Amino acid sequence: MTQPFRRNAVLCASPSGLHRLAYVEWGDAANPRVLVCVHGLTRCARDFDPLARALADRYRVVCPDMPGRGESDWLKNPMDYATPTYLNSVVTLIARLGVDAVDWVGTSMGGLIGMALASLDKTPVRRLVLNEAGPVVMAQALDRIGTYVGKAPPFPDFDAAVRYVRAVSAPFGPHTDDEWRFLTEHVIRRQPDGTFRVHYDPAIAVPFDAETPHQDLELWAVWEAIRCPTFVIRGERSDLLARETVERMRTTGPRAQAVELAEVGHAPTLMHDDQIAVVREFLLRG
Questions:
Q1: Which end of the chain is more exposed for a tag (fewer CB within 10 A), N or C?
Q2: Which residues contact 192 (CB under 8 A, 6 or more apart)?
Q3: DSSP symbols for 18-51
Q4: Is 184 a member of any domain?
Q5: Would you state the pLDDT for residue 114?
Q6: What is the pLDDT of residues 158-201, one digit of tens each?
Q7: Are 69 and 201 in contact (CB under 8 A)?
Q8: For helices 109-118 and 83-97, what crossing angle results, to 10°?
Q9: Contacting residues for 138 by C-beta, under 8 A, at least 6 apart
Q10: Looking at the domain assignment, is residue 156 inside a domain?
Q11: 270: number of CA atoms within 13 Å, CB side?
Q12: Local confidence band at 145 (pLDDT 50, 70, 90 cut-offs)
């Protein structure tokens, strides 16, 4: 069966050399209206399959694997797993796409990258959706994430991998068994010995754990520089994005619109119809 998306890649630069950034693309390749969707710390481009499928009638939807994840190359220097490398990679990607402006959906790390890009002079970001991301990232969430990043064991079979993903990703909220299997299949790989391993560079934990215990990460100066229309999604049970932070985001910087999703923590997967609907409504408004 023909895939509903296309696979491609672009060559990017980091301080330690060149790396291949892979991405999947949905919708009409000639559509000048482009939506870039960027995943969280240990996730991958395929997380956005349901959202991309729902928006491909209106957008050319482009979902990259950030360096060290999915089908993209791993970096030679672990300390290059940082915002400057990610910004360079997505700017190179946008140049490859041949457009002057994009809309952006970013989950967690992908939202922080989107904030950084949107804050720059001459930014290509036209509309910005931050899914569980904001100018204060709370230390308690960073410490929780640090307990599993780069530390996943090998799994004897696929079902064991699913149980692991369900455990570490429990804050994603309620999902069906099939949805948990989907959230697992694209972030693990079968090994030659028949076991399964999480498929990202374990070295992404090196810069993440450079400060332990973590302190709150504050990016208000970045936030204040953003001028494009911005929409914030917060999980009701989030330990990363405080309700007080979202309230301040409503009245400062781009004066974001916001929604809080019940029964979800960090972070909504944007797989369900109600979550997709709020994103679509914001992006297509006006």
A1: N
A2: none
A3: EEEEEEEEES-TT-S-EEEEE--TT--GGGGHHH
A4: no
A5: 98
A6: 999 999 999 999 999 999 999 999 999 999 999 999 999 999 99
A7: yes
A8: 70
A9: 216, 239, 240, 241, 242
A10: no
A11: 30
A12: very high
Residues 53-96 have pLDDT tens digits of: 999 999 999 999 999 999 999 999 999 999 999 999 999 999 99
pLDDT digits (tens, 9 = 90+) for 98-126: 999 999 999 999 999 999 999 999 999 99
Structure token digits, residue 77 = 């220097």
> How far apart are alpha carbons 181 and 198 in whole angstroms?
14
Which residue spans within the chain are E strands per DSSP? 5-14, 17-26, 34-38, 60-64, 102-107, 125-131, 136-137, 188-190, 196-198, 217-218, 230-235, 257-261
Report how many domains make up the chain: 1
For the beta carbon of residue 170, count every other beta carbon within 10 angstroms.
Answer: 11
* CATH classification at residue 135: 3.40.50.1820
Is the CB of residue 233 less than 8 Å from the CB of residue 132? yes
